[in-house]
Amino acid sequence: MKPIRAGLLGLGTVGTGVVRIVEGHQEDLQRQVGSPIEIRKILVKDKTKAREIPVDPAKLTEDPWEIIHDPDIDILIEVMGGVEPTKEYLLAALESGKQVVTANKDLMALYGQEIMAKAREKGCDVFFEASVAGGIPIIRTLIESFSSDRITKITGIVNGTTNYILTKMSQEGAAYEAVLKEAQALGYAEADPTSDVDGLDAARKMAILATLGFRTPVALEDVDVRGIRSVTQEDIRFAKQLGYELKLLGIAERDENDLISVSVQPTMIRKSHPLASVSGVFNAVCVYGEAVGETMFYGPGAGQLPTATSVVADLVAAAKNMKLGVSGKWAVAPYREKKLKTDEQIASKFFLLLHVEDRAGVLAQIARVFADFGVSIESVMQPSSGDSSGCADLIIITHHAAKAAFGAVAGRLESLEVVRKVKSVYRVEG
Amino acid sequence: MKPIRAGLLGLGTVGTGVVRIVEGHQEDLQRQVGSPIEIRKILVKDKTKAREIPVDPAKLTEDPWEIIHDPDIDILIEVMGGVEPTKEYLLAALESGKQVVTANKDLMALYGQEIMAKAREKGCDVFFEASVAGGIPIIRTLIESFSSDRITKITGIVNGTTNYILTKMSQEGAAYEAVLKEAQALGYAEADPTSDVDGLDAARKMAILATLGFRTPVALEDVDVRGIRSVTQEDIRFAKQLGYELKLLGIAERDENDLISVSVQPTMIRKSHPLASVSGVFNAVCVYGEAVGETMFYGPGAGQLPTATSVVADLVAAAKNMKLGVSGKWAVAPYREKKLKTDEQIASKFFLLLHVEDRAGVLAQIARVFADFGVSIESVMQPSSGDSSGCADLIIITHHAAKAAFGAVAGRLESLEVVRKVKSVYRVEG
After folding, report:
1. Residues A317, B144: C-beta atoms closer than 8 Å
2. Is residue B299 less than 8 Å (CB to CB) from chain A?
3. CATH number among 3.30.360.10, 3.30.1330.10, 3.30.930.10, 3.40.50.2000, domain B139-300
4. How far apart are CA A363 and CA A413, in angstroms?
5. What is the reported pTM?
6. How far is CA B410 from CA A162, B352, B367, in A?
7. Do B31 and A150 touch (CB under 8 A)?
8. Which residue spans of chain A are classified as CATH 3.30.360.10?
9. Residue A159 in contact with residue A301, Cβ under 8 Å?
């Protein structure tokens, strides 16, 4: 029986997992595809390097073109990461009629449309389940299982590093910097944590999810991003007192007129909401559909074998489509025009932590500012009495309000004499 | 453009939802399938009955064969329920080359293998996403997304009625009978609740999930079933005190030698486990894979539109496969021989609630029985002191023990003079 032959770009953590699963589950894979699956060539940086698993040295190459131009390779699996030159490799592979499986969220968020267009032109498939939320099959769910529904909202904890940090801060009362150092020591955070803690990694994933869910081409620059660097232990403590957990949450919304907004920001989530109990490096994505209502998909967001599971499931799908002669028909191109909400149209509840003078009349002045901008207050709380400087903390939670109006309130409050500091501002969900 | 033409068996709750979604989301469906989808004929019991939605009377028929024998109908959607004569209709439709979409768990649990075999013989697809857990796309996830993994365990809350009852008992301290009556009044439980409260509905779903997950033909009679009729308010209270929720849990397990066990029973689940917070009529399924680790899928387990969402997603899949000319290639037949675990091989932790004489030496006698059968005790608790009759409750939680050995312990305890009653026995998870 003629095997399906794959080429693998990258033999790092995920690539090693792919080799493990393809070898370890060969019998099951063969049952499903109807042919053996063989990894024929593997691109590595250094052929002489010691490997975690035994690999036939004859399969290793340091030249990507040896794989991309090999006419005997049917499917290219890309787990090397990076945007350049990876994009060039994928486009060349598609050009020569190869199917592509990739785990590369950066590439798919930035150039997904271009890559998909090339795939359609050449009648090839591009699968990218592993690019979002590791082992959670959210891409396939959005494309296939909710094909009949109109998705109105996707919220997700899609970055394990930041969720690990916030969970530790919440459970152990530790400070941001200390937990970040610990996460780095454990390998959960990189030496340069920017991409994770500033929310960029989550933003890339949300751009991919929103594009699929809303069938609208959402670009990375359409995502409003705020990371977790400014989250304090105090914020988390107050959140918990009020019945919330503070999570870095991706939120993509679409209204009845197909106006959309996509953001990533630290958000207060009601403890009773299923996302609030997603802890550590786990990921979860909630999908809301007009018909289906609320659903949630939970699992490991990263890791060698979870991510490789998604890659190999894609490999099976690509191999089946190839054998059936139906490659290139899986994904529908986004067909809805992109109409982004303005800050006047984006609405949510907000949490505000102020440091104010602790005396009569102050609350009236503050409430006046909210009223001036038409923002309605849901609750006000003074968590402790004034300190020696005659100041106290004041927490205000608003009803649903426009982001623009709330921003104006926060700006005006900054300028009030009785407000010493606007300490924190968060979106509130659930 | 030639439309894809479907026939619908049944215009009850789910059938009405299917018509609503096919009409309401026609544009999106057409984008995905490449043709309009038309529901051409609908089987009803009484053509003259008033309908929840406007339906062209010319489409209605009281004769199923008018649909099954219509050569212009490509896809049969079955949402009428029941086993006979529904099975006959489906087999006849497949025989004449029609694709089949069904929401019928009873039928798939009892005759799934026969129906799938007929479909393979005729090169047709049978999709049945809606048969398990309504709007949660768990069938597609098991077949496609975890195709590369070796699934070792599936646990699930897959019956909304019993979960509603247990949630109410837990949250409101109400008694079983009272909550059941309330659930019946709200339409969450049927007038004859047997199928739900005795665990049969959940058992059918677990048989389907185990068959797909383990690629082994698991029959309904392979599932060890116990319902919730005997669950008392006291059991739930003690469970909560110990940090557990009591849930009707389906558990399918497979060990490294492919020995499997499938059961449905009220089970104590640690509160920190994601399944413990699944409340009301929601469903959730946890899937454990060797590679992926722990995942969970959560959503509405029933309801008109959630269930119809799954049916129409299947309709889209069937229509796409038809147009691509690849029908009948989706599902792999279970290929692993069925080897069921014996009660000696099934192991778990157990909870035991005894009513015993409250005096010195009693615990020693009881502990002796556990030791005799090699069952190790994790903890013992006496939740309150003795009553006027000189008796007290005693809770024992075991370490992992064989089901047979634990059964022998419980049997021997019944016969001890110092044990007035073995009040409750539950499996413990998490």
Report:
1. yes
2. yes
3. 3.30.360.10
4. 11
5. 0.92
6. 48, 8, 12
7. no
8. 138-300
9. yes
Q: For A132-136, A308-312, B322-326, B384-388, which range has the lowest pLDDT when averaged over its residues? A: B384-388
The boundaries of every CATH 3.30.360.10 domain in chain B are 139-300
- The domain made up of A4-134+304-324 is a member of CATH 3.40.50.720: yes
ipTM value for the complex? 0.89
Query: Which residue spans within A228-274 are E strands per DSSP?
Result: 244-254, 260-270
- Scan residues 204-263 of B and list those with Cβ closer than 8 Å to A: 215
Specify the CATH architecture of the domain A138-300: 2-Layer Sandwich (3.30)
**Chain B residues inside the 8 Å CB shell of A308:** 148, 291
Structure tokens at A430: 């659930």
Pairs of residues, one from chain A and one from chain B, whose beta carbons lie less than 8 Å apart: 180
Residue to substitute from B309, B326, B335, interface A, most A β-carbons within 10 A: B309
| Start and end residues for every CATH 3.40.50.720 domain found in chain B | 4-134+304-324
User: Is the predicted pLDDT of residue A409 greater than 90, yes or no?
Assistant: yes
The verdict on whether B168 is a catalytic residue reads no
Number of residues that this document lists for chain A: 430
Handedness of CA A5, A10, A11, A15 (dihedral sign): negative
Contacts of A315 in chain B (CB under 8 A): 148
In chain B, residues with a C-beta closer than 8 Å to the C-beta of A324 are 324, 326, 329
Cα–Cα distance measured from residue A221 to residue B8, given in angstroms and rounded to the nearest whole number: 45
Three-state SS string over chain B comes to: CCCEEEEEECCCHHHHHHHHHHHHCHHHHHHHHCCCEEEEEEECCCCCCCCCCCCCHHHEECCHHHHHCCCCCCEEEECCCCCCCHHHHHHHHHHCCCEEEECCHHHHHHHHHHHHHHHHHHCCCEECHHHCCCCCCHHHHHHHHCCCCCEEEEEEECCHHHHHHHHHHHHHCCCHHHHHHHHHHCCCCCCCCHHHHCCHHHHHHHHHHHHHHHCCCCCHHHEEECCCCCCCHHHHHHHHHCCEEEEEEEEEEECCCCCEEEEEEEEEEECCCHHHHCCCCEEEEEEEECCCEEEEEEEECCCHHHHHHHHHHHHHHHHHHHHHCCCCCCCCCCCCCCCECCCCCCEEEEEEEEEEECCCCHHHHHHHHHHHCCCCEEEEECCCCCCCCCEEEEEEEECCEEHHHHHHHHHHHHHCCCEEEEEEEEEEEC
Segment A220-251, tens digit of pLDDT: 999 999 999 999 999 999 999 999 999 999 99
CATH topology of domain A347-429: Alpha-Beta Plaits (3.30.70)
- How much is the mean pLDDT over chain B? 95
